[in-house]
Amino acid sequence: MTSTEPLYHSVNWNLDYNLRLGKAWSRFMRGLQNQQLWASRCDACDRTYVPPKSFCESCFEAVADEDWRQVEPVGTIKAATIVYQGFDGGPEAPYAVGAIEVDGTDTMLMHFVGGVDLTDAEGARTTIAPGTRVRAVWSQSPDASITDIEHFVVDPSA
Ligand SMILES: [Zn+2]
């Protein structure tokens, strides 16, 4: 009788490749390179997406080029955490990340939250608590990538 226990094989993937971003992500990244944050809007179900989408994820309607709009790079933290264990290719831990609802949108943008004292875990959790207002800090060396926003910072006046 053959065992039904699952087998495990050790696999190591270390791949260099070029990822084709597609029309929506390319346009979004080029906007970031110019310190512009763009959203796509679905008029059929009244949803605005950041990052923008080619198709509405809710009703599957195509989003036309003219349905894009620029939004202010400010928003509200909806959820956040402090990462203590980094990963290959990522920033050195610890660091804070947040799910940020950009003003005027219905989705969340995951990004780093900078300027947080991570030596005080409890204080850091309070600093980046849900409801905290944040604004983007733009990179001084943009390269059409998500890190053209270096991070968001807490800004109660945002
Ligand atoms: Zn829709």
Write the topology of this structure.
Layout: H1 22-33, E1 37-42, E2 47-49, E3 68-71, E4 74-83, E5 95-102, E6 109-114, H2 121-127, E7 133-138, E8 149-154
Parallel strand pairs: 6-8
Antiparallel strand pairs: 1-2, 1-3, 4-5, 4-7, 5-6, 7-8
Zinc ion (ZN) binds at residues 42, 44-45, 47, 56, 58-59, 61.
Please, could you describe this protein's structure?
The chain has one domain. The termini are far apart. The strands form 2 sheets. A 5-stranded mixed barrel has the order 4-5-6-8-7. A 3-stranded antiparallel β-sheet has the order 2-1-3, covered by helices on one side. It is mostly beta strands and 158 residues long. The chain has helices at residues 22-33, 121-127, and strands at 37-42, 47-49, 68-71, 74-83, 95-102, 109-114, 133-138, 149-154. It is globular, with a radius of gyration of 19 Å. The mean pLDDT is 94. It is built from 2 helices and 8 strands; from the N terminus they run αββββββαββ. Strand 5 (95-102) and strand 6 (109-114) form a beta hairpin. The chain binds zinc ion (ZN).
- Please tally the β strands and state the result: 8
- What is the C-alpha radius of gyration, as a whole number of Å? 19 Å
Quote the distance from N terminus to C terminus: 67 Å
Which structural class fits the helix and strand makeup?
mainly beta
What descriptors fit this protein?
158 residues; mainly beta; 3-stranded antiparallel beta sheet; globular; binds zinc ion
